[in-house]
Amino acid sequence: MVWLANWVMNQVLVKSCYGFARKLKSHGFHWGDLSSKPLHQPSPFPNIDKCDLECRGSQTLACDFHKVLLRTHSFFPYFMLVAFEGGSIFRAFFLLCSCPMLWILNYEMKLRVMIFISFCGLRMKDMENTSRAVLPKFYLENLNLEAYEVVASVGSRVFFTTMPKVMVEGFLKEYLNADAVIATELHTSGCYFTGLLSKSGLLVKHSALMDYFGDTKPDLGIGNTSLHDQLFISLCKEAYVVINEEGKVMPRNKYPKPLIFHDGRLAFLPTPSATLLMFMWLPLGFLMAIYRIFLGVFLCCKFTLALGIWSGLILNFNDKNQQRSESNKGVLYVCSHRTLMDPIFLSITLGRRLTAVTYSLSKVSELIAPIRTMRLTRDREQDGETMKRLLCEGDLVVFPEGTTCREPYLLRFSSLFAELADEIVPVAMNAHVTMFYGTTASGLKVLDPIFFFMNPWPRYDIQVLGKVPRELTCAGGRSSHEVANYIQRQLADALGFECTNLTRRDKYMMLAGNEGVVQEKKGRRFC
């Protein structure tokens, strides 16, 4: 009898462990995905690739956002962006530490916890900046091409999502021309979020659809294969599901609108595993940044470049300008502008002492800069006189865009530089990062060099082009605007970028809600 009892017990344990393992696998408990895995079953609705896109201009669409338009499985990266960019590094670390708890919670509790950690005590203004300047980049990079093509084919679009409305509404209306966004509402107190939901709670999509459309049915519905979404799209006249949630990647040339400006420090999608690696790298990365800055500021010698490359810095330099200066004046280097380190890297690679002029530079960065810097005033006549004087003293570096741009675009060039010199050398500069951006529109600019050098392998590509022929300069009868446009096109072709007519003012109005001019503080404000 004893052996029989042992045999029965072994069978029970084996089957229990096997069943648990099957359930664990089917529910997707792995480090990279903190989304809930709702119960899926074979869908009675066809796949979205079967949807005919013709003659839908007058139709109304009801569409889920997460796992339909977005290819990412988890809400977590977007809440981490809110916590890090809108809140602080401490809030982001707290959200990362909650991952073990999130794994064991159900769908609703998981969302409530992430909302509370990301939004509790967060200023509404900070969230508005994050929603406008940070999140759209990551949404565009993770759009499902097949789902987007269906959305773009209809005339009226209504989106439903359980994500907080403040995280998605701006993007959906600005980039996807949403007629309405029905999403979870958050509770606020004064100028701050409390981290709690409003009285309506988490959005229930099929109920929200019935409340919004009433007795009429939308012409087309798109959802995923979960039971909740199938119930949601069953209320539409025609329905399709996204079976392959990862879908096709949206190429840049098919974006609804060009992504030219964006803000924030994180250069990667912060999944749990990627965020963990970032926090593990931070102590070493900070020391690496201090070391690299020390090399450039205090150890300006012929070994600086070699020591920087040894630390992981990647530098590609190509000098196509073989012509000597024909005048007693200095050479005017006209550069594309990617980070504040542009003139420093150019000076090191050329092996020449340069003077850089800039519109915005923190006093700390100006103090520790290893090259001479001069601040401009935005007074055209005064700035022109300053630059003429500097050219008489030596070589000068100018950035006609007036500000940095992260994406493969060149902003409109100011024509002032073309009036000052006949010897103009264009320099195509580009910076590549993998973890942190070294520029900001609304953050602390004094931290820009630190964040750039905290990247494991920051890379700079510098291409010095040939001197502009005299007949294509103002001395050859060209107008200053013609010279500026010619050099902008020359740099764009060398970099593979596109030229735009956007300016510094356009950038700061979009990303920071101001014109990029530091105003004198008159008092302390709390909202």
TrEMBL record:
Domain Phospholipid/glycerol acyltransferase, first and last residues per copy: 331-432
Record-annotated membrane-spanning stretches: 75-105, 266-284, 290-315
GO annotation, biological process: cutin biosynthetic process
Localization terms from the record: Membrane
Pfam families referenced in this protein's UniProt entry, alphabetically: Acyltransferase, HAD_RAM2_N
Record's keyword terms, sorted: Acyltransferase, Membrane, Transferase, Transmembrane, Transmembrane helix
SMART domains in the cross-refs: PlsC (SM00563)
MF terms in GO: glycerol-3-phosphate 2-O-acyltransferase activity; phosphatase activity
Keyword Ribonucleoprotein: no
Record's GO cellular component terms: membrane
Tagged with keyword Acyltransferase: yes
Membrane topology: Multi-pass membrane protein
Annotated InterPro entries: HAD_RAM2/GPAT1-8, Plipid/glycerol_acylTrfase
Family the UniProt entry places it in: Belongs to the GPAT/DAPAT family.
Protein name per the record: Phospholipid/glycerol acyltransferase domain-containing protein
Species of the source: Glycine max
High-level lineage: Eukaryota, Viridiplantae, Streptophyta, Embryophyta, Tracheophyta
Gene: LOC100802208
